[in-house]
Amino acid sequence: MPSQNGPIETSDITRPPRALIDSLQHIGSATATSELKRLGIRSAFIQGPVSMTPGVSMVGPALTLQFMPKREDLYPEAEYVEPEQQLHRHVLYHTQPGDVVVVDARGDMSSGVFGEMMMTYFRGRGGLGVVIDGCIRDSAEIKHLGLGLWLRGVTPNFHTQTAIFPFAVNVPIACGGVTVLPGDIIVADDDGAVVVPTGLAAELAKKASEHVEWEEFSRLRLSEGGDLRKYYPLTDAARAEYEEWKAASRSPRM
User: Fold this and answer.
1) Residue 114 lies in a domain
2) CA of 96: how far to CAs of 18, 62, 126, 146, 177, in Å?
3) What three-state secondary structure class fits 250?
């Protein structure tokens, strides 16, 4: 939480191996959440924030930022008073290339968690994007930075102008009704953002790769007028045909 005595110190996250993150790059949020359901996670979907950057997808480890309801004795009122006491800055200090910032802003629609300058710094450090159960400001300028943005909305207000203030960095948070632990892997695209527990990521990558592959086959057959009852989901009656297609697809071409 913000300290009024001395410098603030916050912890970094433990990042999953790069190969593990790369293994989830092409599965998409829909496949991720459905396969996580089969692995025992009922819903990993962060409800509320939606894609503000159509066509952009990202996969990366979560830096977390928690907001709390405003208590004026714990936080200065003005925007630029004691900048280094402002914890929304400190979460960005931990940024490494490929990181994602996930923010529990309590669904507040009147506080701009980050603005253009903060996000310019984040992008310059190699950040991929943000998932915020709340808003940003300077939205037009931020959209030109090339970041992925999953938000509830936008506002002209600064981060502590109204009802909330940043309270903790890289702690477990609740974002959009889902628990997010520091270092969890975020898979986000046009359908939304999904939290992948690091302990399930390897199994998810395996299951999801199989899912993506048979869906590719089924999509091809359906586009040719194939029977929906046979090809989606893939039935035993189509399994031999699928295995033959898969083998042919993997065969080296002369």
Assistant:
1) yes
2) 12, 11, 6, 16, 26
3) helix
Burial (Cβ within 10 Å: 0-12, 13-18, ≥19) of residue 55: exposed
The CA–CA distances, whole Å, from 211 to 30, 72, 151, 214 equal 11, 51, 29, 6
Sign of CA dihedral 90, 93, 94, 97: positive
- Residue 229, C-beta contacts closer than 8 angstroms, at least 6 positions apart: 235
If asked whether residues 207 and 94 sit together in one domain, one would say no
Domains in the chain, number: 2
Asked whether residue 106 is domain-assigned, the answer is yes
Q: Identify the pLDDT of residue 200.
A: 97
Question: Could you state, in chain order, the average pLDDT of each consecutive group of 10 residues for the chain (254 residues)?
Answer: 68 97 94 94 97 97 97 70 81 98 97 97 98 98 97 95 94 97 98 97 87 83 91 88 84 55
